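Sample 1 of the test manifest.
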Amino acid sequence: MQIVVGMGERGLVRLVDPELPDEPVREIALDAFADAVRDLEPSRPRWVWVDTRAWYPRLLAAGVRVDRCHDLRLCGAILDHSTATASARGAGGHPRPGWLPAGPAETDAASQADTGARVAVHSTLFDFDAEEAGESTVTGAAATLTDRLLQELRRQEALVAESSAPGALRLLLAAESAGALIGAEMHAAGLPWDRAVHERVLEVELGARPAPGWKPSRMEELAGRVRRELGVASVNLDSQAELLRALRLSGIQVDSTARWELREHDHAAIEPLIAYKKLARLMSANGWAWLDEWVVDGRFRPEYVPGGTATGRWATSGGGALQLPKNVRAAVVADPGWTLVVADAAQLEPRVLAGMARDEAMAAAGRGRDFYLGLVDAGVVATRDEAKYAILGAMYGATTGESGRLVPRLASAFPRGMALVDRAAAEGERGGSVTTLLGRSSPFPSAQWRAVQARASEPDATAADERRARSSARDWGRFTRNFVVQGSAAEWSLCWMAGLRMRLDVIASTVSSATPAAGASGPVFDRAPHLVYFLHDEIIVHTPREVADEVAAAVETAAQAAGTLLFGDFPVEFPLDLAIVESYAMADA
DNA sequence: CGGCGCGGCGCC
DNA sequence: AAAGGGCGCCGCGCCG
């Protein structure tokens, strides 16, 4: 059963069964929304709404979770660009309605190139529903909004049904929508954060917290050493321009102040300068100001943006949640009586590539062991490090250097895997779109990119024009090469996480005497194990100690289930590095 | 003054 | 050690 959620007249929330559209299941005030959902949830409906971010936080605040949903905005963004729906959308079939808000990674350029549709760029949050409801009142047309939602749901269902891969797309839309629920839940739950531990890290690295406008003592010391070694009385190390000038005056011939370039030079100023930059980064990205802004009541609550990147990987907004430096992860500490289950998928991307390409030899290299060691055992390369660089090079499109040199060896060992990424690169170089395992397609290159290509094929094109075109074609080819692997790996991760979420709910019903979480997790999360962090191929579950082993087993089971969902009985394995630890830093072993 | 591009760097 | 993909955030410095 599905229930469509939208704003009706007079600010009332309408809940409508698409099978019986004329009579709403409920028509209620916003205040009564959470109670209505709590009532209806036991029959396990799929909640259909425009935007999970608009509705779900309100439910979570009231202590209500839902099992599943269909996020029309996120699913529309996938369907309106997928090559799998291209023929269904051909000749103006199933046009996207102008009111449907743009997806998080949709740009006007990408959307227009593909569908010709105009992507609405108005506010996409709760205002959207309210605004539309207001409109329907003005025109006097009753329930216009929910009619629109029903129509959009049917449009999306039709696109799936008429697509070249209905099964894969259904799975992708379910996984994407589950991701939207999980993102909202992780924000509500928060990542348990020990302020005192973080402050200790800062004090050890930087020194005592300075007064506002001052720098920590360790940074001042290092800055003094750099100035002495450069022989300049004053240079602001935070100014790239000033620093570059000072370096060159001291005879250090660099073109940038990037660490990798500085390291090439042998000069007494380099070591303290690199150390300074490291501390400056810690200070500005995750220093005391960050703690004050982002850690409240023992929880770090970033805003997750499911589907926030072109490949389907998530983004975050605010707090830099996906860039937590390793040295502050010690501050991620479980509540008393609780623990963390930390797991990441080992060498996920090459394994996903093996499965997609149905490359038996590649799958075998990773079976029962570290994938990179498998390459060494198979005699493809000599060392694990070489294996890593070779694989990285294959998936990112390296052509030069050590990495590029190793790629041909992979091509002979794993012809099917390499052929898949090579085809993706070739498609990108032509300006085409490539598609992940489940059906998310890459955006088309910009008009400017196409203009550069067109210029090179004009009769009076210069050698420089041709060079420029070739170079930008290869750039885009590297993007599409990586897109299919990164995007399909993101799909594996979504399936893993969605399956885990289901299994955690089962475990939750067995928790008897857990100490309620000390932090401000809210009523939904204070007794049950729940996801608190997701980083592309890595998850953290915060769980009462008494069920930690069951949670760890569920994490494993969910990983194997995700492999089967995506690749059936093709023998590719997805081993995890898993640890049950008090602190995130302890998972790194 | 705010907006924005850029260099630099953290993560995968 | 290795130079290829995806991001977000910071400070700086320029611009209107």
